[in-house]
Amino acid sequence: MELKPRRTWSKKGNLTESFGFLRPVPWCCCHGEIAILGGIEEQNEKLWSFAKKASHIQLDSLPEVPLLVDVPCLSAQLDDSILNIVKDHIFKHGTVASRPPVQIEELIEKPGGIIVRWCKVDDDFTAQDYRLQFRKCTSNHFEDVYVGSETEFIVLHIDPNVDYQFRVCARGDGRQEWSPWSVPQIGHSTLVPHEWTTGFEGYSLSSRRNIALRNDSESSGVLYSNAPTYFCGQTLTFRVETVGQPDRRDSIGVCAEKQNGYESLQRDQAVCISTNGAVFVNGKEMTNQLPAVTSGSTVTFDVEAVTLGTTNNNEGGNFKLRVTISSNNREVVFDWLLDQSCGSLYFGCSFFYPGWKVLVF
């Protein structure tokens, strides 16, 4: 698009100059109008040619035509000298882009959050940083939620069954100004947020009860979720925000049911990872080991049902779940045998020294 002046004379003899951004006319509009004009024989030939060309053109290859109300335009009575000054100021403070160089491509619901993924759509644009904003659809104000070089981010503190709007822009390599915003996308989560159980003396919780901090209390034991909100087929994520002194009895994991009186999830009917990277299944330490948990580590659990009937084995257990635990770009996969069918699971953690802080989502 380009900026061009339009001149008209008023009844009083004053020259009126206005200028705006001229919109490109799509190929189909021009050639379609030509095809329906002219004589019968010529018209038939042009219509046949028009239909043949149109069948080979992809819709997304056409230029985007904005609504007239969305096109910036300034109209005033100006002489030539003032017009040139105004035009210089407009081009000094603004730019015109055919479309934003980055767009949101996917929204994935999580318990209490939404993963937003975006991608570049302009190969000639080299992005240095991205800026993600969101708002409730009932709000008039967007707020920044992420600025950085990654192309995905999980937005937490999402209320279930509430629509949110997301948009993203980018900053080119070596530039200070941001690109135009992407087309806003609407997303929501129907999943109940994960929460830790309140009232456990050894842990302090955040206001949304999704962050647990091991405090200085001498009380020890397993802090469980307040309900079995983790379902097979989902991904359960723990992010370690801060670390304390490690202990071999530390544990982060899932279990079929709450069992009070245990100091760790390294027990029957549970799978977990210790802060030193050891993996335990039904209280038995596995041969494969993951990297030690450090500040900023993300540990994920993916569980899927394998067997819905009685299994013939010598290890006990009637139902089998396949568990994948990932941490620091490494993962282990194993089968977990349970005494009874379990469609939803509790999650839990235990730390023996203060300072450990864990976010679950």
UniProtKB/TrEMBL annotation:
<protein>
    <recommendedName>
        <fullName>Cytokine receptor-like factor 3</fullName>
    </recommendedName>
</protein>
<feature type="domain" description="Fibronectin type-III">
    <location>
        <begin position="100"/>
        <end position="193"/>
    </location>
</feature>
<comment type="function">
    <text>May play a role in the negative regulation of cell cycle progression.</text>
</comment>
<keyword id="KW-0963">Cytoplasm</keyword>
<dbReference type="InterPro" id="IPR036116">
    <property type="entry name" value="FN3_sf"/>
</dbReference>
<dbReference type="InterPro" id="IPR003961">
    <property type="entry name" value="FN3_dom"/>
</dbReference>
<comment type="similarity">
    <text>Belongs to the cytokine receptor-like factor 3 family.</text>
</comment>
<dbReference type="InterPro" id="IPR013783">
    <property type="entry name" value="Ig-like_fold"/>
</dbReference>
<dbReference type="GO" id="GO:0005737">
    <property type="term" value="C:cytoplasm"/>
</dbReference>
<keyword id="KW-0175">Coiled coil</keyword>
